[in-house]
Amino acid sequence: DNPNHSHGVKYSFDKVVWDASEIIGADSVGVALHYLSKDTEEGYPGNLKVKVTYVLNNDNELKIQYEAQTDKPTILNLTHHSYFNLASYKENILNHELTIFADNFTPTDPSWIPTGEISPVAGTDFDFTQPHKVGERINNLANGYNVNFVLNKKSNNELSKAAEVYDSESGRFMEVYTTEPGLQLYTADYL
Fold first, then answer.
1. N or C: less crowded end of the chain, CB within 10 Å?
2. pTM over 0.90
3. Apex CA 102: angle with CA 96 and CA 104, to 5°?
């Protein structure tokens, strides 16, 4: 992403081999992934121990938890790039009804870097405070959706609902909860 560094240099964490351990609970299964990014790997200071845990339970909840420790000050912003299609890829996601619990978003410059502004979603193509189909306004945008929403949070680190998605054809419904202050909606430049 020249001139920016948003996904790592050559071997971002999605291109390295992680150690894995199985998680088996009374009502859940999962995997814990561990990786040690050694001091100066990809130009970053510090030995960074990263752990990502994925757990699926009997309530159809997928829980993802990140942990990291370093021995020097460094830059880190862990995320995952899950793409969800509640229609089982029989259709695209444009008819999915989406609600995002955010009254504001962070505008970006042409290279997708936030400008520092926080702008209201009201009256824009980014207003999902009420359910809207993903494809309803997507053609108004040059590359589809690639925007960070500032979630309506009562307090920092609070686990709260960030979004709901519903596909009327399959009847599938998904809720997204997070402790983070923002949610990125990315439609993979789909138009």
1. N
2. no
3. 120
